[in-house]
Write a structure and sequence with these properties.
This protein is α+β, with helices and mostly antiparallel strands. The chain has 2 domains: about 230 residues, 2-Layer Sandwich (Antithrombin, Chain I, domain 2), CATH 3.30.497; about 90 residues, Alpha-1-antitrypsin, domain 1. It is built from 9 helices and 13 strands. The strands form 3 sheets. The chain has a 6-stranded mixed sheet with strand order 2-1-3-13-12-9, with helices on both faces. Strands 4, 5, 6, 7 and 8 form a 5-stranded antiparallel sheet that branches. Strands 10-11 form a two-stranded antiparallel sheet. The longest helix is centred in the N-terminal third of the chain and has 24 residues. One of its GO terms (molecular function) is serine-type endopeptidase inhibitor activity. It comes from Asbolus verrucosus (Desert ironclad beetle). Belongs to the serpin family. This is Serpin domain containing protein.
Length: about 350
């Protein structure tokens, strides 16, 4: 979890919307997936924001409302452009986000939306034959792998592609960073990890002894917050730990407050953090259904800039987004797509 504070009003509104959407996305995702999961609301929101730029009227406004975005689409697109400029790596860490739009051969894209795709979302547009579904899936999967340093594989199944497929939008996000305060290998040792009061497992646990960290104790949430910065100081990982071993459910019931900015202070601490590697494949059909109020979103010709006036587009959750996280002493890998 990370929070970006900016002086730009439009960008800050977009950041605040992302935090609200993250809370909503979490509450819906937890209903339909395994107890342990990894999610990237940014990737999902980026794709849906991309979609609303291709719609008009009530359809576009409904998507913006679901994403907690400002009503003015010009402000939304301005903030998207600025956020993509912010989300760039430097010589201290690698941060890469990319958008891609695959379009059925012969399918006509409105020039205005095409310009928005390339100028605002920095999306490359490529024509593809979805009838050759295996070849098309291989092409798209190769692109995803190239954008996530080969961490995300086999995203697109050929089974979801056919002659009725008009467009496929993909967002890929990749991050690799070194801890500002790296955990030392020789401090890692096997220790108890409490999944619940009665369910205890042994895991390799990394340690920091008597070092300065940004730390917060939130009495309302009955939880502790710890900030672990990466080199460059622009990006941090926030660890949230309930004070009670069975306290996770209580935190989830107040998830909006969990994602809100916290009052951190510098504290001299001992820190113990389990090593772990997680890869999640999320079932998002019901999540998107509940967030967008419909099982499928119909963009009729009067409300859609994507295609000819006689056609209708139906937006489905047809693939299962994947997220991969690798946490160890020296660095963290994160790769995600939607």
């Amino acid at each position: 979890m990370a929070t970006l504070i900016t002086s730009d009003a439009a960008l800050q509104d977009f950041v605040n919307a992302n935090n609200l959407f993250t809370a909503s996305f979490y509450k819906e995702t937890v209903k339909n997936n395994e107890p342990n999961f990894l999610m990237s609301p940014y990737s999902a929101e980026t794709v849906l924001t991309f979609v609303q730029s291709g719609c008009k009227g009530e359809t576009a406004q409904e998507i913006r409302n679901s994403l907690h975005l400002p009503a003015d689409n010009d402000k939304v697109e301005s903030a998207v452009k600025e956020s993509l400029a912010v989300l760039k790596g430097n010589d201290k860490y690698t941060l890469h986000t990319a958008n891609k739009m695959y379009v059925k051969e012969g399918f006509q894209i409105n020039e205005g939306f095409k310009n928005t795709a390339t100028d605002v979302y920095q999306a490359n547009i490529e024509n593809i034959d979805f009838v050759l579904n295996e070849q098309a899936a291989d092409t798209m999967n190769s692109w995803v792998e190239s954008q996530t340093n080969n961490k995300i594989k086999n995203l697109i199944s050929p089974d979801i592609l056919d002659n009725n497929t008009a467009t496929v939008l993909i967002n890929a996000l990749y991050f690799k960073g070194n801890w500002t305060n790296r955990f030392v290998n020789y401090t890692t040792k096997e220790e108890d990890f409490y999944k619940t009061n009665k369910d205890v497992v042994k895991v390799d646990t990394m340690h920091h002894y008597r070092e300065w960290f940004n730390y917060c104790e939130n009495s309302v949430l009955n939880a502790k917050f710890l900030e672990l910065p990466f080199e460059g100081e622009d990006i941090s990982m926030i660890i949230v730990l309930p004070n009670e071993k069975e306290g996770l459910a209580s935190l989830e019931n107040q998830i909006e407050k969990v994602f809100a900015p916290q009052n951190f202070t510098r504290e001299f601490l001992n820190v113990a953090l389990p090593k772990f590697k997680v890869e999640s494949t999320l079932e998002l059909k019901n999540t998107l259904k509940n967030l967008l109020y419909q099982n499928r979103l119909l963009c009729h010709s009067s409300n859609l800039n994507l295609r000819s006036s006689k056609q209708i587009i139906r937006l489905y959750s047809t693939s299962e987004p994947k997220v991969s996280l690798f946490l160890q002493e020296e660095f963290q890998h994160l790769a995600t797509e939607a």
